[in-house]
Amino acid sequence: MTALVLALLALAPPAPAAAAGSYTVTVDGGGAAFLYKICLKTTTTVNTYPAGGGDRVCSGKKGSPDGSFDLTAEYTDGDTVWMDVEMLVDTLGHSRTKDDVDITGSHSCTLNGALYAGKFKCENVINKKSFEAPTIEPYQVAVDDPDAPIMQLLSLMAWCVSAAAVMGLLLTGMTLASQLRRGALEERTEYTRQIAFVMAACLLATTAGPIVQALGFSQ
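^ thats the sequence. predicted structure below, dont judge the formating
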């Protein structure tokens, strides 16, 4: 009798797998002051379709004028549901992403904020993600490398200061000599003062490096 029951069980067709349904999420991006793209995926889509984009349903490029929209993906009871959120930061295609955000059980999400300060949040309070601005490393000046761009710029500026100082002295001296030749001795004091100003400017320009270093601004 036992053998007969086992034989009947072996001949019986296997139980059908649970039919895949759908999972819909409403996204409100009206408060996002930047362009973005949102993708929805489930355990069913990840297991059914190959990776590389086919395992998720994406919104395409969106912005605040698009307001609310729905994303729908295949779903089987018990699936985990994720969203990938991509912030488009410039016209060259650079972006910042928050991938695999678990939103299981949520059917309504919002995206708001400004560039690099956007926030993505779903019905479930734990599903909240924030974008942060990239950190910028301090620029180190290679003062010992004369071929470094910043050192070449400083050398050019120093040359321009020297040229301006020489030109100032020459013009002031030429003008003073011309006035003395004409006998306008009453203007000597004015041109002497101009020469003093030009020489003071030359002194300040030549000592700019030591002054900045002494004040600690070059550290």
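Residues 4-10, 12-18 have pLDDT under 50 and may be disordered.
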